[in-house]
Amino acid sequence: MGKVHCGRCAISSFCPAYVLSEDKRCTQELECLEFSTILWRWGRQQRKMKPVIVVHGGAWAIPDAMSGASVRGVKAAAWGGFSVLKQGGSCLDAVEQAVRVMEDDPVFDAGHGAVLNADCEVELDAIIMDGETLAAGAVSSIRNISNPVTLARSVMEKTDHVMLTDRGADRFANSLGMPRVSTEALVTEDERRKWEHYQKYAKGVKDLFNSQWVQGHDTVGAVALDCRGNVACATSTGGIRNKMVGRVGDSPIIGSGGYADNFSGAASCTGHGESIMKVTLARLILFHMEQGKPAKQAAKISLQYMGERVQGGGGCIVVSRNGDWAAEFTTERMAWAAIKDDVMCHGLNPKEVFSEQLTE
Questions:
Q1: Nearest Cα to Cα of residue 35 among 13, 64, 7
Q2: What are phi and psi of 207, to 5 degrees?
Q3: Which terminus of the chain has fewer Cβ atoms in its 10 Å neighbourhood, N or C?
């Protein structure tokens, strides 16, 4: 049989559904498309992909006093996640591990180190998503949990729901026997002083987070591609200092704070949550990748659109289904790190990329 291609679905004539009509079009196009999906999945299973992980520690005006710790934190998180991938672990395990490292690091606004809301409480949000099945789990406005990303994964794997919030999420955590921690254990002394300062001068969220430049905020996130060709994302945050009680930003919202789909890639976003939700930033990035744009260009176009359309600043990390990755932001700084081919890249300032060879 000659390798004549259907003009619409691009499947060769060895496809069992391939039948040309008189106008040279495939008469069983839908079946052909289904077969193309099977072929694509089969091809990925036959070749072992090179694992990739990218992490971010939040896009905002990171002060010089925190810059060193922020870079060290994202490098440690990237290494923690990549260690899972290097041993043949799944992308879900890798992004969860990477985010847990940052949730346990008080330099980041997630888990330990979270900011306080208007009532001097900690409310945490997180999401995790599996690109192979599109399964996702998220939690919002939860209290006294040091690793929200792990609770989010439990929502994905142990319930029929995608998101649990507030009391329901807390009740679910209790049913799992998940350890609880006090607010005092999650909040740093520096955060408490800043919260008291902003209360004294009656500064609210708009003062801390103006339209273009992010102040006093950071989210953490990770995206990964494993050796089986699957992708995943995870995002976790304590939100914005002095936020209203019950405020939920983009981080736990599927398609906004994160999205993963094996057919395109995975993205985790950070920045002004309300702006990110308005443009569904994570899904927008993957849409551009589905149109054939590389990860870096897709990220830049999407962030530019958010800036122009809703005057929002932010950042993102992206990995494509083929291992192409990017870390982009429109804020003053974003701490990020990526590992591919045993080379770690990292940066903090715009157009800044440092690389180093990893050793065992």
A1: 13
A2: -70, -35
A3: C
Residue found under tokens 């099977």: 38
For 248, counting Cβ atoms within 10 Å of its Cβ (0-12 exposed, 13-18 middle, 19+ buried), the class is buried
Q: Answer yes or no: are the C-beta atoms of 238 and 126 closer than 8 Å.
A: no
Q: Are 143 and 170 in contact (CB under 8 A)?
A: yes
Instruction: Tally the C-alpha atoms within 13 A of residue 109's C-alpha that lie toward its C-beta.
Output: 28
Active site (catalytic) residues: 219
User: For strand 265-271 and strand 258-261, is the pairing parallel, antiparallel, or unpaired?
Assistant: antiparallel
What are the strands of the beta sheet with 325-329, ordered from one edge?
A: 258-261, 265-271, 314-320, 325-329
Is the four-CA dihedral 253, 218, 106, 216 of positive or negative sign? negative
Quickly count: other Cβ atoms within 10 Å of residue 60's Cβ.
30
- Phi, psi of 42, deg, nearest 5: -60, -45
Give, as one character, the DSSP assignment of residue 191. H
Class of residue 65 by CB neighbours under 10 A (exposed 0-12, middle 13-18, buried 19+): exposed
CA-to-CA distance for 269 and 143, rounded, in angstroms?
Answer: 22
Q: 235 is written with which tokens?
A: 């995002």
Q: Between 166-175 and 148-158, two packed helices, what is the crossing angle to 10 degrees?
A: 80
| Of 186, 248, 224, residue with least CA distance to 319 | 224
Task: Output the tens digit of pLDDT for each of the chain's 360 residues.
Answer: 333 344 434 433 334 444 444 444 444 544 554 555 555 565 555 568 999 999 999 999 999 999 999 999 999 999 999 999 999 999 999 999 999 999 999 999 999 999 999 898 999 999 999 999 999 999 999 999 999 999 999 999 999 999 999 999 999 999 999 999 999 999 988 888 888 877 765 554 545 544 344 445 579 999 999 999 999 999 999 998 888 999 999 999 999 999 999 999 999 999 999 999 999 999 999 999 999 999 999 999 999 999 999 999 999 999 999 999 999 999 999 999 999 999 999 999 999 999 999 986
The residue type found at 26 is C
- pTM, entire model: 0.86
* One-letter amino acid for residue 27 of the chain: T
- In angstroms, rounded to a whole number, what is the distance separating the alpha carbons of residues 298 and 37? 23
How many CB atoms neighbour CB 12 within 10 A? 13
